[in-house]
Structures
1.
Amino acid sequence: MRCSLCKKDKAVIKYRHSNMYLCADCFKKVFEKKALVVLKRAGVLRGSGKLIVVAVSGGKDSLNTLYVLHKYSEIYDYDVIALLINEGISGYREYTIKGMISLCNKYKIEYKIVSMENEIGFTVDFATELYKKRKIRWKPCTVCGVFRRYLLNKHAREMGADFLATGHNLDDEAQTILLNIFQDSLYRVIQADYISREIVPKMVPRIKPLYYIYEKESVVYALLNKIPAWHIECPHAQYGMRADIRRFLNKLEDLKPGTKINLLLSREKIIQKTKSLKMPMKYCEICGEPSTHEICRACQIRNVINKFL
Ligand code: SF4
Ligand code: ZN
């Protein structure tokens, strides 16, 4: 098939929901334009000298985000620094760290690695062992997610970030919407779309440059740009509900292309209608970080796990 835009080159990707085919060059332009739309809407390009800290895991999505933001930083006036939280997941994290270092070295991007074990006192592997022995009730992904978000916000803020960019793509977002609905967390559904909706002191605004980009597009973009992403799955992914939702949504998208984007569009409409609904933001009585509870989730989990150290 020929590209639907330039009508010249051979297509490398097909968009089923719009029945469009794109060649490598047109696809890259479309991909980058979608990221630029988020940057513009989020106000990243307003003014000058802003700092974007990119939360990097070393997978294709976060490395694509870093690559695109770095590319635009050569045109627009902002700086980019990569930040990776090493949660201590052996057989996984050590490989993805290599991917980030290799991309940063190639494009001379500054980076920082924070060890969860040094900062919090234990690793996700350790918490997983406790979960398997039924000593704690939190699944590995809960512990991992809570502390990753906690450390990303804390370090991005200390680095002076104006924005914290994450690599969430359209598929991740569609899964998260359903996950939160299934867990009766409406606040989480409306808390953020491509940018965090509530800006409170000590909380760095989050942006998701890949918000309108399908997982499939992210795979193709990484391949075309030779992004050194490791195709390796976390050994703890099996404990989460996300994998089931992912399969379910992929099946639905297959049957009815456009299902995932429709979920995102519905959320944007709900956000518009619920602007007055505010998250009851407080500051943790123990660590002082922003939280919806008196004691933040990180401190709640830490208090329990500390007993086993
Ligand atoms: Fe963390 Fe779960 Fe992702 Fe593994 S799958 S990196 S434990 S959130
Ligand atoms: Zn706390």
Note: The pocket of iron/sulfur cluster (ligand 1) is lined by residues 89, 124, 140-141, 144-145, 234, 236-237, 240 (CB under 6 Å).
2.
Amino acid sequence: MKLIFLGPPGAGKGTQAKLLAESYSIPHISTGEILRAAIAKETDLGKQAQAFVDRGELVPDALILDLIRARLQESDTQQGWILDGFPRNVSQAEFLEKLLAELNQNCDHALNLEVPDAVLVQRLLGRGRKDDNESTISRRLDVYREQTAPVIEFYKQQGALVSVDGSQQMEDVTKNLKSCISV
Ligand code: AMP
């Protein structure tokens, strides 16, 4: 099972990705979590990424692509994986496409969680992460619209896109996602 989560910040990608990863016993790979851990540990990656994450900007592709290449070749990815927060722009999606071809893999579904903006802002403000303040949230939503939303079209054209209403109760979203995946 190889899944990609799409959708704006606050749509519930992390929560749903974690639940599905447990349920299918496959790794949940969150580039945001990898970056936050690197920032906390003050590694080279963390130091280079911090200012971008704090501003709500995307970290340059150069910092992310090798990391994904290495992560998708670790031994726990044999049965599948769930990507959360990657790809975040069309060039990352094209990179992933080539990488998966090289690895003889294929993404089964790109799951797109749809949630209205007003709900997103409320959820993000309630979450309390360091980059969940009003100005950073607004920048992240703009960055999403400008750079990440076009990735939806990319997967639609590949016939891999599944859109689910992410504004419902968590359990209902999980149920809908599972029923789409198992079709
Ligand atoms: P997330 O936890 O997915 O909301 O990501 C938090 C922050 O990490 C984002 O606002 C970006 O600054 C950075 N980030 C996460 N994933 C990526 C990615 N694939 N490409 C570039 N920046 C990313």
Note: The mean pLDDT is 97.
